[in-house]
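Hi, here's the filled form for the chain we discussed.

Project: internal
Contact: R.S.
Residues: 209
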Amino acid sequence: MPRVTITVPEKNAQPYRFQLDRQSVYLGRGSDNDIAIDCGSVSVKHAEMRRVEGGYELRDLGSTNGIKLDGGRCEVIPLRSGISVKLGDVAFDFQLSEEERAALAREKPDSESPIAQETQETLPAGPSSKVRRPREEPAEPTGGGGFWMILWFLVLAAAAFGAGMAVRFQKDTGGSLRDAIKSKSHTVTVPAPAAPAAPAATPDAAAPE
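And the returned structure, exactly as it came back:
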């Protein structure tokens, strides 16, 4: 059974229960209402809780202080389980059981039913709702490109070193390092002639007797 709780300021909360087949529940300060509310901010015939296809709604009946949701005044408020509405200064809380929500959602399971929307929001996500992240492919090795880059760097370094040496040689000697290398490569070193060998010693002539 739907449960309505009325809380008048500075008074205890008053719960009320109704069958699902109850079509209208009137609320107001007058004693002829289904829920009589003893509060000066509530009109004699303040509001009606009406059974609609797929749920309930609360409708203002031209009251002085109106019905409010989140501080804003409304003519009609669709009722969800757990919603809290104000009738003047009085709190109106609406609650449904799980079975009642399921039964109401089956009556009109579309976007027009607040109960159907609430039921869809509380359903657990199925396997199809899981977001599949794309599998990351392993990066391809780039060893070949790195080898050629290192080789090219070494060639450039050698060329820069040679150019620096040529500039320094020209500054120090006034000549070209290339010409000096060429002339040095054509110079033949002649070995010094060997010293003549000393004559072999001869035995002394025999002294005459």
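Let me know if anything looks off before we file it.
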